[in-house]
Write a structure and sequence with these properties.
Number of strands: 9
Strand content: 15-25%
CATH architecture: 3-Layer(aba) Sandwich
Bound molecules: glycinamide ribonucleotide
Oligomer: single chain
Radius of gyration: 16 Å
Largest sheet: 7 strands, mixed
Helix content: 25-40%
Order of helices and strands: EHEHEHEHEHEEHEE
Shape: globular
């Protein structure tokens, strides 16, 4: 069984999707052993507690910079003996001390079709605001490995939704979450835990059964 540690910052609907997937047996070969939050009071913590998953809060605001914060996160991941780290709405970019220690072992969900609308400053609702501002007709979400560059690691899975004429950032976000994020994140986690994701020339592929 692989030890899955989930990092969160907010509402935690993606964490909930992972908890539900675990309860219904969709996640094979792994178990969520701990949830780490960058914010005190994040609703994601309530979701974890309800599912009897241990929680740790490492508040971003208590650390001077990203490096100091990342070192604290790394120490906790090591303490938890994480096999897989999942960033599920985690709103802090991790320094390379973490990404180097866990190569191809950190998975992120990004609410756009990478390489569009991604990188520093693109997170949460802002991503959808930018997509609507541009006028794209299709958007979606990307599940990818995390490396030292923001949203630039190998893509594991992507899924799309249509953009409607009267969409707001909120309606588009919700459609992408429901149709893509909440399905593909648990799927990618399960594939990882079954050793079904392989890397060739820096790109990720899913092995057929
Ligand atoms: C999700 O849409 C996730 O893709 C996005 O924030 C939301 C968090 O929701 N993540 C990012 O923008 C990371 N760059 P949740 O807390 O309900 O899972």
């Amino acid at each position: 069984m692989k030890n899955i540690v989930v990092l969160v910052s907010g509402g935690g609907t993606n964490l909930q999707a992972l908890i539900d997937a675990q309860a219904s047996g969709i996640i094979k070969g792994g178990k969520i052993s701990c949830v780490i939050s960058s914010k005190e009071g994040a609703f994601a913590l309530e979701r974890a507690k309800k599912a009897d998953i241990p929680t740790v809060v490492i508040p971003r605001k208590e650390y001077a910079d990203s490096k100091a914060y990342s070192e604290a996160i790394l120490a906790e991941l090591n303490r938890q003996q994480a096999d897989l780290v999942v960033l599920a709405g985690f709103m802090t970019i991790l320094d390379e001390c973490v990404t180097r220690a866990y190569p191809y072992r950190i998975i992120n969900v990004h609410p756009a079709l990478i390489p569009s609308f991604c990188g520093e400053g693109f997170y949460g609702l802002k991503v959808h605001e930018k997509a609507l501002e541009y006028g794209v007709k299709v958007s979606g979400a990307t599940i990818h490995f995390v490396n030292e560059k923001a949203d630039a690691g190998a893509i594991i899975l992507q899924g799309t939704v249509n953009v409607e004429n009267d969409d707001t950032a909120e309606t588009l976000q919700r459609r992408i979450m429901e149709n893509v994020e909440w399905k593909l994140l648990p799927k990618a986690v399960s594939l990882f835990c079954q050793d079904r994701i392989f890397i060739r020339d820096g790109k990720a592929y899913v092995a057929e059964k």
